Amino acid sequence: MAVITIQKKEIWDRFVDESPHGLIFHKWEFLKIVEKYSGYNFLPYGVVRGEALIGLFPLFHKRIGFFSRVFSPPPRSGLPYLGFLMGPEYETAKQDRKETYLSQVIDQINDEIKLLSPNYISIYSTPGFLDIRPFIWNNYTTDPKFNYVINLNPDLNSIRNGFKLNLRKQMSLSEKQNLSLVPDTNLSSFYDLMTQRYKEQGLNFSFYNIDYLKALFKMYPENLKLYSLYQNNNLIGGILTQEYKKFLTWHGNAKIIEGVYGNEYILWQLIQKAKGDGYSKFELTGANLRNLCQFKSKFNPSLEICYNASRKDSLGKFAEWIYMNLVRKRH
């Protein structure tokens, strides 16, 4: 096996299309936009066996002075995960071959990473990749991260009947509150609303800026969608989705005004849409914070795990402390 730098968008995107875990987040132009707005250098690594491309590994690198860092995805890109992709043949291979292929891929990429002499490395894998052992064997620290997934294969009545009773009552009440959820293109209004809502809770709405968001949506209008929530023609909420291979709630869904069951309404409307569009999985991204889990778990989802693989030297640990305690709070 060998690591190559892929130069052609067509080769990269074809592999993303064929990989069971590839998302719009992995697409070439998406990553080039991330590169532009993040200030990180996009490294489009591929792993080949003979002449066959068997894996992709998008990494982002930045060096400031003597401090070098490698991410996948980079901070404030808004991406919940990125990491490596394996081709469809990996999924159907026997276990011994899976382990051999995956270990060789991670070993090869780790050798490339070493050439960058990073002080800090952080890689978030896509959900469903449970075999994180090759990272452990390369002295990475691995931490589980969680998402909720709703199975859309049952009929809608069965899905709704699986929801917690008080959630079903709130959904019924929401249908009497003059709410409407509509596809929208007004990203600026959504961005301003979410920024204010997150600020009220002492949180940062995690994007570089509105131009970054507009560039992504312009590039992938069929797969990145904005749905705005109105009450009596007043904008009160909204949500961004990724609609490619699976239906994924991406960003938004912030706290709605008191007494309005807007988020319950939003998610039920989107579940119905995803089901109608033929998706089998509806991902409620992010199941790590207790207060959010108390709300999302009412939809009777199952848990799905992804992992953060990280490695840092003493300088990297110090930089992490600075970011978490000073920079992140300022943003």
Topology overview:
Elements: E1 2-5, H1 9-18, H2 28-38, E2 41-49, E3 52-64, E4 67-72, E5 85-86, H3 88-92, H4 95-115, E6 120-124, H5 133-137, E7 141-151, H6 156-161, H7 165-174, E8 179-184, H8 187-200, H9 210-219, E9 224-231, E10 234-244, E11 246-252, H10 262-276, E12 281-284, H11 290-296, E13 302-312, H12 314-330
Parallel strand pairs: 4-6, 11-12
Antiparallel strand pairs: 1-2, 2-3, 3-4, 3-5, 6-13, 7-12, 7-13, 8-9, 9-10, 10-11
Helix pairs in contact: 2-9, 7-10
Give a structural overview:
The protein has helices spanning 9-18, 28-38, 88-92, 95-115, 133-137, 156-161, 165-174, 187-200, 210-219, 262-276, 290-296, 314-330; strands at 2-5, 41-49, 52-64, 67-72, 85-86, 120-124, 141-151, 179-184, 224-231, 234-244, 246-252, 281-284, 302-312. It is α+β, with helices and mostly antiparallel strands and 331 residues long. Strands 1, 2, 3, 4, 5, 6, 7, 8, 9, 10, 11, 12 and 13 form a 13-stranded mixed beta sheet that branches. A hairpin with a 2-residue loop joins β3 (52-64) and β4. α2 packs antiparallel against α9 (210-219) and α7 crosses α10 (262-276). The longest helix has 21 residues, at 95-115. The relative contact order is 0.15.
The tally of domains stands at: 2
What is the CATH first-level class name of the largest domain?
A: Alpha Beta
Helix content: 25-40%
CATH T-level topology of the largest domain? Aminopeptidase
Q: Let me know the number of strands.
A: 13
Instruction: Count every helix, treating DSSP H or I runs of 4 or more residues as helices.
Output: 12
Mean pLDDT: 92
Determine the CATH superfamily of the largest domain: Gcn5-related N-acetyltransferase (GNAT)
Rough outline: globular
Order of helices and strands: EHHEEEEHHEHEHHEHHEEEHEHEH
Q: Characterize the largest beta sheet: strand count, sense, and whether it forms a barrel.
A: 13 strands, mixed
- Termini gap: 42 Å
**Cα Rg:** 21 Å
- Spans where pLDDT lies below 50 across 5 or more residues: none
CATH architecture annotation of the largest domain: 3-Layer(aba) Sandwich
Q: DSSP strand (E) fraction?
A: 25-35%
Give the class from helix and strand content and strand pairing: alpha+beta
